[in-house]
Structures are given as C-alpha cells and as structure tokens.
Known about the structure:
83% of the residues lie in helices and 0% in strands. The chain is mainly alpha-helical and 256 residues long.
Amino acid sequence: xxxxxxxxxxxxxxxxxxxxxxxxxELAPRLGWASDVFVPPFSRVLKTGWELGFINIxxxxxxxxxxxxxxxxxxxxSALPLxxxxxxALPWLARFIRPLTLFLSQIPPxxxxxxxxxxxxxxxxxxxxVIFWSxxxxxxxxxxxxxxxxxxxxxxxxxxMNANRVQIFFKIILPGAFPAIMTGIRTGLTMxxxxxxxxxxxxxxxxxxxxxxxxxxxxxIERIYLGALLVAVVGAVLNYVLEFLEESVVDWKEVA
Length: 256
C-alpha cells in the first residue's frame, strides 16, 4: 500500500503546483482578490469550453498542429542536410557564414511577418513561412554543433578499419550527433508552436491563435483564457512527447 502511494505521489509530484494554481485561479475572483470581469473563475472558463464544443476545440487544435508540422517538416528537410554538409564537407564555409546566420537567427519572425506577407501573400503561406523561420535555425545550429562534437578519434579509427564515407556517417557521425539534433528538433518544434499562435492572430481565420485574437476583438474574456489554456496544454503535451521520444530513441544519450 505504501509503495503504491509513493508511486502515485512521485507521478503527481510535478503537478501539485499546477493544481494549486488552478485552485487559486478559481478562488481569487470568487473571494474578491481579483475582478471576475478580467479574471473569470477557472470553472467559468471550462464552461465556456463546454459551450464552444469539444469538436470545435479539437478542430482548432488540429488546424494549428497541421500548420506547425507542415512548416516544421519543411524546415527540418532543409536544415538537416544543410547542417550535415556545412559541418561535415564544408566546415570552412560554415565558419565563413556563421556571423550571417547568427545575425539572421536573431531576427524575430513577428518583425518579418509583413515581409513574408509581401513575398508569399496573406494566409497560409505567411503562417508557414513564420513557422519555417522559427524552427530552421535551431535545427541547423544543433546539427552543425552535434557533428562538430563527434569524437575525431572515432572517425580516424573507422577510417583505419577501411570504412567508407557512408559507413562513417551512419555508424559514427549520425549516432554521435543525434542527441544534439534531437535537442534542436524539440526546441524548433516548441518555438514553432508558440510562434504559430502569433502568426494565426495576424493572418488566419481558424486555429488556436485565431481563437484568442477573435475573442479579444469581440471582448469574450473567457474565450481568451480558454485559448491561452489550450495553448499551454498542447504545448506541454508536445514537449512531453518529444522528451519521451528523445529518451526512447537516443538510448546512448548520457542521463544527466
């Protein structure tokens, strides 16, 4: 019994603070600690979600995730090969363009959104471009860093055993760089999701970002909180899924 209790306690330990926050959220407006006009009780936000409908909420989430994954996949298939080429075959070019790439990566996608709209138009194109820009740089930099951090002794040992370039890449370089690449993928996907919310509020007619922006325009306070809550939940789920995949796939990663 004690073991079962400790197991449940260990599982829920990380959520105790979340439960406490939700309780405070519910009680604060009811006890007069905050105005219920600007901070509606948590139960009222849940009621708003119920009235909006489960199907509609799932549809908003699905639309946002579709945009995230599509833009992120485009960034991944572009950044990963480029990172492999720059770090493995053209390290001198990687050093040469590093100041430029660092400069470009520091430009927030929101600032570039009007430019993206001019280039690709309003709507889905601009949204996908924002997601692409947000996730491209973390994947590129971590792939370059991961390959650069592969132990050169392993590469020389493989060459001494007459391994060809393809074998060295798949047997030595890729496994050694994969933990860093997975970190870049997780960072890029998380950034893409949160950047998407802002992009949807500027150029979409559906999705979680649009839900928040539309609620703000119409003065539906409960829907604003509902949208923010959905964004937090979906973002947390994405992060946990990526952590699980990282721990499962990258079994050679050293546990901190």
